[in-house]
Specification:
Blueprint: E1 2-5, H1 20-27, E2 32-36, H2 47-52, E3 56-58, H3 60-64, E4 68-70, E5 88-91, H4 99-108, E6 111-114, H5 129-146, E7 168-172, H6 176-188, E8 191-196, H7 199-209, E9 213-217, H8 220-228, E10 232-235, H9 250-253, E11 261-264, E12 285-288, E13 291-294, H10 304-325, H11 329-332, H12 334-337, E14 340-343, E15 346-347, H13 350-355
């Protein structure tokens, strides 16, 4: 099969859908890969790296004309005209937070498979996990930076020093993002609180972190008390293919101390904090109610060399199946089949259907 790998167009998104090593794995199996010129340079992969791996360099129009297109982020409006009927698109989509893209995919007739909804029988999300790990670790790294006074923050050193109280990090959600955020925050020496609605998950987190983390059931009262005293609030809530629930109201944000920081990793699914809105790597923060907000939906794009390889380690087996079998791969691999969101002008994934019932036919 012929595959196309476009250059990402989202602001400062330097990841690329296929690394040179993934291209080599495909070309060695007889597939043809067309990579847009300079698609990988931001991640540290030169055009020559791709040529040596067996790829052909091409313009965007040629790359997008292939029957299988492998990306990282969702198509932006400038790319909508490239989408074609019957084309296989394999990328992150997050349709629940993007009605316009959902409508465009339905109209064009492409077969859209979302990384984030590929689901194993044990409910794990293998293609979301690597980016969740990176986003969780970056959330605290970013937050520590924005707490600096010169960045508009309170001037708090998360780790503190002997004789001075360390900063307090509050994490909403104890999944992969929350766990990795806690890991970094603990390493920095911060006080850490995780809130989650799963008692089983809280027990698991206790087995990992012991007494180094305060683990609380995610009730309204606990959220209110924790948020009001947080120096860094990390939103790490995930509901598969659906909008994130709003756990922190605008009124509750106003109780936070001026210069505190909010990093909402759930922003690509609408966010779990009412005052959050999507930002970009070029303009990552804004001030509202005296609180520094960061809502970058593609945080792993800040570390594209690491993130591209981490993503490819997980996506390549599925890309190979799509290249080998085309749309039939969705039936051959049930986990991959769960990734199907849109096909033949129809909205397929049940969770996305629930968000846009008026688009279901």
């Amino acid at each position: 099969m012929e595959l196309g790998v476009p250059k990402e167009t989202k602001d400062q998104e330097y990841r690329v859908g296929l690394s040179p090593s993934s291209v080599r794995a495909l070309t060695e199996r007889g597939h043809k890969v067309f990579v847009e010129t300079d698609a990988g340079t931001g991640a540290g992969f030169s055009n020559e790296d791709y040529v040596q791996a067996g790829a052909s360099l091409a313009l965007a129009t040629a790359v997008w004309s292939q029957p299988l297109v492998v990306k990282v982020k969702e198509p932006l409006p400038s790319e909508y005209d490239y989408l074609q009927k019957g084309q296989l698109l394999f990328t992150y989509l997050h349709l629940a937070a993007d009605r316009r893209l959902t409508e465009q995919l339905l109209e064009c007739g492409a077969t859209a498979i979302a990384y984030e909804t590929v689901e194993l029988p044990d409910k794990r999300l293998p293609l979301l996990a690597p980016m969740s790990i990176i986003a969780g670790r970056l959330a605290v790294q970013f937050g520590a930076h924005y707490l600096e006074r010169q960045q508009g923050g309170r001037g708090v050193l998360l780790g503190g020093i002997p004789g001075v109280t360390p900063g307090k990090v509050v994490i909403l959600g104890g999944g992969i993002v929350g766990t990795e955020a806690a890991r970094i925050a603990i390493g920095m020496g911060a006080q850490v609180t995780i809130l989650d609605i799963s008692v089983d998950r809280l027990s698991y987190l206790e087995s990992i972190f012991g007494s180094r983390v305060e683990l609380l059931y995610s009730s309204t009262a606990h959220i209110e008390a924790a948020v009001a005293t947080a120096d860094l609030l990390v939103g790490a809530v995930l509901v598969l293919a659906s909008k994130a629930p709003v756990l922190v109201s605008r009124q509750l944000v106003q109780t936070m101390r001026s210069g505190s920081v909010i990093i909402d990793v759930a922003v690509d699914q609408g966010g779990c904090i009412e005052t959050i809105r999507p930002t970009s790597h070029s303009h990552p923060t804004y001030l509202e109610a005296g609180i520094v907000h960061c809502g970058v939906p593609n945080m792993p794009g800040a570390v594209p060399w690491t993130a591209t390889q981490a993503l490819n380690n997980s996506t390549l087996p599925y890309v190979l199946k799509l290249a080998n079998f085309g749309v039939a791969a969705l039936d051959k691999d049930l986990a991959l089949g769960k990734g199907l969101n849109v096909q033949n002008h129809l909205l397929i994934h049940p969770a996305v259907q629930a968000v846009f019932p008026d688009l279901v036919h």
